[in-house]
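Input record, target 12 of the design panel.
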């Protein structure tokens, strides 16, 4: 069974392996940056928090610094954030606040214990609220705009690698992690603010994506793949929408969960992901 240190090391290695592929992120970077820029339009000198910032290949920080007064970058890999900051213009660097190492899942110090069934129902049920409040206190939030930058899939992969899908707690922990992440977005976003949720939903290993023009809207394809059951179950927008409606805290925190854009992310020479973003208004 992989250890906690193995999971943290895996993410560091993933960030290092992506360094030669900055140019392949161009379409993904442009699309996600536009979503984040659009969210800034209703605020004056807003603050931004990015969960899972990593190498920051997902975002054009220099463009965002033209709209956001402060940009908080959060990740478990401190070296990746440092490299990302060093690449930016000096004026942009002055707006960056780095938070690392931060475990956004709240699981790394307990997942091995849970794998041994050393967990009570009360601990499992309280995990989402406890982790979300710890994140709020650690990051000194709230913020005007909070972005989950394709981090949910990374955290879910860690759960899969430690527990495997044959573990009796796997589905319970997977749902708990989704709830924890959505609750974290609610805690970090100020009232009347905006939470942005972006995730990879399907990969080229599951589906060959059509060659559409740049800036094409892939939401019809996303809907088709959802209906066929060919998206990652944790990223299924219909399931996430149900979780928001069913959880009393999230129901009071956010309006409807609905993708606002979808596109194909070319991640290196061999892999493509279908990505979507949802914009959640904080009530």
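The sequence produced for target 12 reads:
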């Amino acid at each position: 069974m992989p250890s906690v240190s193995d999971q943290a090391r895996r993410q560091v290695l993933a960030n290092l392996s992506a360094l030669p592929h900055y140019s392949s992120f161009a379409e993904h970077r442009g699309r996600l940056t536009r979503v984040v820029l659009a969210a800034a339009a209703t605020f004056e000198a807003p603050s931004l928090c990015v969960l899972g910032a990593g190498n920051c290949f997902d975002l054009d920080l220099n463009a965002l610094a033209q709209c956001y007064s402060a940009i908080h970058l959060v990740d478990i890999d401190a070296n990746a954030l440092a490299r990302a900051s060093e690449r930016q213009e000096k004026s942009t660097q002055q707006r960056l606040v780095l938070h690392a190492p931060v475990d956004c899942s709240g699981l790394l110090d307990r997942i091995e214990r849970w794998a041994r069934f050393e967990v009570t129902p009360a601990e499992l049920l309280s995990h989402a609220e406890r982790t979300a409040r710890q994140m709020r206190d650690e990051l000194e939030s709230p913020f005007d705009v909070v972005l989950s930058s394709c981090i949910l899939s990374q955290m879910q992969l860690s759960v899969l690698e430690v527990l495997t899908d044959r573990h009796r707690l796997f589905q319970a922990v997977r749902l708990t992690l989704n709830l924890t992440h959505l609750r974290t977005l609610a805690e970090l976003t100020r009232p009347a603010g905006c939470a942005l949720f972006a995730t990879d939903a399907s990969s080229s290993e599951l589906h060959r994506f059509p060659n559409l023009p740049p800036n094409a809207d892939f939401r019809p394809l996303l809907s088709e793949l959802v209906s066929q059951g060919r998206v990652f179950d944790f990223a299924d927008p219909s399931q996430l929408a149900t979780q928001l409606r069913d959880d009393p805290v999230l129901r009071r925190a956010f309006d409807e969960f609905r993708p606002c854009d979808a596109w194909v992310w070319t991640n290196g020479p061999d892999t493509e992901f279908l990505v979507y973003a949802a914009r959640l208004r904080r009530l």
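The chain has a mean pLDDT of 94.
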